[in-house]
Amino acid sequence: MEVREVMLDMFEGRCLDCGGIFEIFNFPDFQYGQRILRTAGGEDIALLDCPHDTAMPEVSELIRNEYRGRPLKDSQFAKLFNKVFGVVCDPIDGKTLDASRVGASCPHCKSSNINTYEIVPRVSVAVKVPIVTHKVWEQLAENQKRSLISEKLAQARSTK
Ligand SMILES: [Zn+2]
């Protein structure tokens, strides 16, 4: 697993279920070309290096093909993209990534019922984050890729 050191802001997380207090890391604001993705349960983070990511253009094209001839607003496209993208990413420490997940989870009780607070003044920390990879996806044939994305899109539509 390739790891890159990035400067992230520290936030304070407070769990509404167990009262636990913990640190959460994310980019301070919008960061051009880089995104922090979280695992489905919110435990781990990974770095999506957009300009160099090979699967992003493939997934975008597969989504657009699926919607060919039908209207697809940018906001709807972004939502669908985030919902399906995790399936093309290798798991982080055995956990599936979910690009539609925004928040972290409590490291003590695993609850997602948390509040996030900004720390003032801002605390910037160098954090080593694994880079999102697509080794499994890259092994798939074109038709397998297409049907996998099709399947995930159907799921995304049914869950809204
Ligand atoms: Zn908790």
Low-confidence stretches: none
Please trace the helix and strand order, writing H or E for each element.
EEEEHHEEEHH
**What is the global morphology?**
globular
Number of helices: 4
Spell out which ligands are present. Answer: zinc ion
Output the radius of gyration: 17 Å
Distance between the termini: 33 Å
Largest sheet features: 4 strands, antiparallel
Fraction in helix = 25-40%
- Give me the secondary-structure category: alpha+beta
Strand content: 25-35%
Average pLDDT number: 95
* Strands, count: 7
Number of domains: 1
General description of the model:
- The chain is α+β, with helices and mostly antiparallel strands and 160 residues long.
- The chain has one domain (3-159).
- Helices cover 29% and strands 28% of the residues.
- Strands 1, 2, 6 and 7 form a four-stranded antiparallel β-sheet that branches. A three-stranded antiparallel β-sheet has the order 4-3-5, covered by helices on one side.
- The chain is globular, with a radius of gyration of 17 Å.
- The two termini are 33 Å apart.
- The structure holds zinc ion (ZN).
Can you give keywords for this protein?
160 residues, 4-stranded antiparallel β-sheet, 4 helices, 29% helix, binds zinc ion
Per-chain topology:
Blueprint: E1 3-15, E2 21-26, E3 34-39, E4 45-49, H1 55-66, H2 74-85, E5 97-98, E6 114-118, E7 124-130, H3 135-138, H4 142-159
Antiparallel strand pairs: 1-2, 1-6, 1-7, 3-4, 3-5
The structure holds zinc ion.
The site of zinc ion (ZN) has 8 residues, from loops.
